[in-house]
Amino acid sequence: MMSQLPIDDDHAPLYTLGQVADMLRVQQAFLRRLDQHDVISPRRSPGGQRRYSRRDILVVRHVIGMTDQGMTLVAVRRILELEAELDRLREELAEERRRQSRPD
Q1: 73 contacts 37 by C-beta, under 8 angstroms
Q2: Where are the domains of the chain?
Q3: What is the longest distance spanned by two Cα atoms in the chain?
Q4: What is the assigned CATH class of domain 11-101?
Q5: pTM tops 0.90, yes or no
Q6: What is the 3-state secondary structure (H, E, C) of the chain?
């Protein structure tokens, strides 16, 4: 069986700060500010450089949309926390429904 390659993993830290800034047409300083405000915390290379995954890039796109609507980074961080909590609760509910639907 072929093992999964990093390129197949949405969470693999493959992209540099500069690459992500170019892709999303934002300033590198904006991405650094997102990290400083704990809005998105990309992983670090052995040399300490930020490395973004495809999942991180999707989150940054979502953040750009919210900041374009005038939201502060504090508000954006709270919204992301609440969205994550909602996702977790939805998964718990789905699991409970699966558990209850099983014959005893």
Answers
A1: yes
A2: 11-101
A3: 57
A4: mainly alpha
A5: no
A6: CCCCCHHHCCCCCCEEHHHHHHHHCCCHHHHHHHHHCCCCCCEECCCCCEEECHHHHHHHHHHHHHHHCCCCHHHHHHHHHHHHHHHHHHHHHHHHHHHHHCCC
Are 50 and 16 in contact, with CB atoms under 8 Å apart? yes
Give 48-95 pLDDT, tens digit per residue. Answer: 999 999 999 999 999 999 999 999 999 999 999 999 999 999 999 999
Q: Are 16 and 22 in contact (CB under 8 A)?
A: no
CA–CA gap between residue 14 and residue 53 (Å, rounded): 6
